[in-house]
Automatic annotation (TrEMBL):
<keyword id="KW-0645">Protease</keyword>
<dbReference type="GO" id="GO:0016020">
    <property type="term" value="C:membrane"/>
</dbReference>
<protein>
    <recommendedName>
        <fullName>Zinc metalloprotease</fullName>
        <ecNumber>3.4.24.-</ecNumber>
    </recommendedName>
</protein>
<feature type="domain" description="PDZ">
    <location>
        <begin position="182"/>
        <end position="256"/>
    </location>
</feature>
<dbReference type="InterPro" id="IPR036034">
    <property type="entry name" value="PDZ_sf"/>
</dbReference>
<keyword id="KW-0479">Metal-binding</keyword>
<dbReference type="InterPro" id="IPR001478">
    <property type="entry name" value="PDZ"/>
</dbReference>
<feature type="transmembrane region" description="Helical">
    <location>
        <begin position="6"/>
        <end position="25"/>
    </location>
</feature>
<comment type="similarity">
    <text>Belongs to the peptidase M50B family.</text>
</comment>
<keyword id="KW-1133">Transmembrane helix</keyword>
<dbReference type="InterPro" id="IPR008915">
    <property type="entry name" value="Peptidase_M50"/>
</dbReference>
<feature type="transmembrane region" description="Helical">
    <location>
        <begin position="392"/>
        <end position="411"/>
    </location>
</feature>
<dbReference type="InterPro" id="IPR041489">
    <property type="entry name" value="PDZ_6"/>
</dbReference>
<feature type="transmembrane region" description="Helical">
    <location>
        <begin position="168"/>
        <end position="192"/>
    </location>
</feature>
<keyword id="KW-0472">Membrane</keyword>
<dbReference type="GO" id="GO:0006508">
    <property type="term" value="P:proteolysis"/>
</dbReference>
<feature type="transmembrane region" description="Helical">
    <location>
        <begin position="341"/>
        <end position="363"/>
    </location>
</feature>
Length: 419
């Protein structure tokens, strides 16, 4: 149960921040956001605030921000349609009823002659006395059809009406907020847990190891090897690994007293290479530093950003296969293992996942944010947008291929973890 809760909280937070990025920049661009959804599939909970419906949906596998002008969102009234209109105090249409199921007093019926509900906002038609009328429509008018209401979206509030730059930032903001979330997580880790100092302090000396035989003890601080100053644990490891079988002169501090040891690293195999080891274990000391926590958050974010790109490169070059990829099942099982090591480790895992989600969405693949961004770049270079039908077809094919990949990865995860 703890794993389920951890998975839902982590995945929910990643999706929320991603979609909040889209939402916030859409609002700043003046785009009407119809729905902010966490999860996919059937709606569990829905709350309307202002012009946006906020929903929680059944399947915790994603989310979306539905903006006006996308996905056949535009409202059209054809000539010959019989509609009902409610007017506000200024005489503007505040509600347009397509199929009247509710009873409204003072409703005006029109047989539509023509209408413009995007740019000039008017409806022209014949009333019950067959008198031709033109009625201006309020910018915040509501259209009701079969009991369902939808806010009218003038063209200047639709996604496609905005400049390439504003559309680009609205889409790019999703992955950007995943990177921001990772930075905040790692910064919070630095504040709560402390920042690793990476000092070359020996945490534990293994029994019957070269270090133990030489007299090294837990808590010794290594200051130099062969006369070269040692400031970090990585420098210690590098010096030892590069001198397998060669005696090394160690200078250490123990309770403030300097000591000298001569230790010969044993030969060990690591990643198909022979390296030197002296038999010591390490756990970095932690220090609390409020301002340093921000630098630590940035350093960890950049580290994982580079690491995930490195792994992607290995996938592209065939250094590991698709079997190494994980879907929701694999992420769940890994979360289960990570949770065993405590809250801080779980937070670090969430930060890494957030960066991974941001990078995956930036890949220039159809249907992903990166694919949409590529079309915006092409539009900026050409000076005109790509044909919407062609772009839609590319994204549709991309969605089908991504769903196929998800099925393959999920099936591999099921076989790996359950069979």
């Amino acid at each position: 149960m703890e794993t389920v809760i951890s998975f839902i909280i982590i995945f929910g937070a990643l999706v929320f921040f991603h979609e909040f990025g889209h939402f916030l920049f859409a609002k700043r661009a003046g785009i009407l956001v119809r729905e902010f959804a966490i999860g996919m599939g059937p709606k569990i909970l829905g709350i309307t605030k202002g012009e946006t419906l906020y929903t929680l949906r059944l399947l915790p596998i994603g989310g979306y921000v539905r903006m006006a002008g996308e996905d056949m969102d535009t409202i059209h009234i054809q000539a010959g349609h019989r509609i009902g209109i409610l007017l506000n105090k200024e005489g503007l249409a505040k509600k347009i009823i397509m199929n009247q199921k509710n009873v409204y007093p003072e409703i005006l019926f029109l047989e539509v002659e023509e209408a413009d509900l995007e740019k000039e906002l008017w409806i022209k038609g014949y009333d019950e006395e067959e008198k031709l009328m033109r009625i201006d429509v309020a910018r915040d008018a509501v259209v009701e059809e079969n009991g369902r209401e939808i806010i009218l979206a003038p063209y200047d509030r639709q996604f496609d009406s905005k400049t390439v730059g504003k559309r680009f930032m609205t889409i790019f903001a999703g992955p950007l907020f995943n990177f921001i979330l990772a930075f905040l997580i790692f910064t919070a880790l630095g504040m709560m847990q402390g920042i690793p100092t990476f000092e070359p302090v020996i945490t534990e000396v293994t029994e019957e190891s070269p270090a133990a035989e030489a007299g090294m003890q837990n808590g010794d601080l290594v200051t130099s090897i062969e006369g070269d100053a040692i400031a970090t644990w990585d420098e210690l490891v590098e010096s030892v690994q590069n001198n397998a079988g060669n005696p090394l002169a160690f200078e250490v501090e123990r309770d403030g007293e300097p000591l000298d040891f001569t230790i010969t690293p044993e030969v060990a195999e690591q990643s198909a290479e022979e390296v030197g080891v002296i038999g010591v274990l390490y756990q970095s000391p932690m220090e609390k530093d409020f301002l340093g926590s921000f630098a630590y958050g940035a350093e960890r974010t950049i580290f994982w950003f580079k690491e995930i790109f490195r792994l992607l490169g290995m996938l592209v070059t065939g250094q590991f296969t698709i079997d190494a990829l994980s879907g929701p099942v694999g992420i769940y099982k890994t979360t289960e293992e990570v949770a065993k090591y405590g809250f801080f480790t779980l937070m670090s895992w969430a930060g890494m996942l957030s960066i991974n989600l941001g990078i995956m969405n930036l890949l220039p693949l159809p249907a992903l944010d990166g694919g949409r961004l590529m079309f915006f770049i092409v539009e900026a270079l050409r000076g005109k947008p790509v044909d919407r039908q062609k772009e839609g077809m590319v994204h549709f094919v991309g969605i089908m291929l991504l769903m196929l990949l998800m099925l393959v990865v999920t099936w591999n995860d099921i076989q790996k973890y359950f069979f």
